Amino acid sequence: METLSGHWDKIFRKTADHKLGWYENDFSQTLKFLNRIRGWKQARIFMPGAGTSGLIGELMQTNATLVLNDLSPEAIALAKKKYGGKKENLRWLCLDISEPLPEELHNTIDIWVDRAVLHFLVEDSKVEKYFKNVHTLVKPGGHVILAEFSKKGATKCAGLNVRRYNVEDLKNNMVAFELIAEEEYIYTNPGGEPRPYIYTLFQKRST
Ligand SMILES: C[S@@+](CC[C@H](N)C(=O)[O-])C[C@H]1O[C@@H](n2cnc3c(N)ncnc32)[C@H](O)[C@@H]1O
């Protein structure tokens, strides 16, 4: 039986970047949210499912330290080829974001940036573990951007079922965080189809 990482590997192997169903070359929506965070260009930023996103290249133009994770070794290999080796402050990880992350990462992240990763976790137990990771990795005062399919969004992506979110669902899971900003956003995929997202920015309480 195909593993989940094998499923993603296959997609990345056979699909040109610009044809991926989540491809974007305009990062202004994420940058708009990042720009609300003071000092983000010097922060330590974690991407739980970085894929081959051009956002990596965009963030590499700043002084941020990047911790780039993905379940798919193929995605990491492609992203490394595109971006790797160009920046000292770059670290690659190949871990399942719905499993507990290594202790050495705990309390080390200033900003967690998730675009289109969390919504692929459909089982409650995996979702719980994801949010536990958010809570253990992000420092007090740190921020989290969650950009996921909204309730008006598609029910499948990349051949997988997704779990869709509204702000309340996200708030209920972000118990140690304050909601700072929220916005509905329609992404248009390479096939011209609208994909409604909910973008949120949270800040972890300091105590
Ligand atoms: C729709 S893509 C989004 C990629 C990137 N965030 C972007 O915006 O271009 C989802 C990514 O999450 C990764 N992924 C899926 N499930 C994962 C998991 N359980 N742990 C870590 N990464 C995962 C996939 O390999 C893929 O690269």
Detailed description of the structure:
- Strand 4, helix 5 and strand 5 form a beta-alpha-beta unit.
- The radius of gyration is 16 Å and the shape is globular.
- Helices cover 27% and strands 29% of the residues.
- The strands form two sheets. The protein has a seven-stranded mixed β-sheet, with helices on both faces.
- With 207 residues, the protein is an alpha/beta fold.
- The model has no long low-confidence stretch (mean pLDDT 96).
- It has a single domain, classed as Vaccinia Virus protein VP39 (Rossmann fold, 3-Layer(aba) Sandwich).
- It has helices at residues 4-14, 28-34, 55-60, 73-83, 124-137, 167-173; strands spanning 44-47, 65-69, 90-93, 109-115, 138-149, 156-157, 160-161, 177-188, 194-204.
- The chain has six helices and nine strands.
- Helix 1 (4-14) packs across helix 4 (73-83).
- The longest helix has 14 residues, at 124-137.
- Bound molecules: S-adenosylmethionine (SAM).
The stretches of 5 or more residues where confidence is low (pLDDT under 50) are none
Ends apart, CA distance between termini: 45 Å
Order of strands across the main sheet: 3-2-1-4-5-9-8
Oligomerization: single chain
**Count of β-strands:** 9
Cofactors and ligands present?
S-adenosylmethionine
Order of helices and strands: HHEHEHEEHEEEHEE
Count of discrete domains: 1
Shape: globular
What's the architecture, going by CATH? 3-Layer(aba) Sandwich
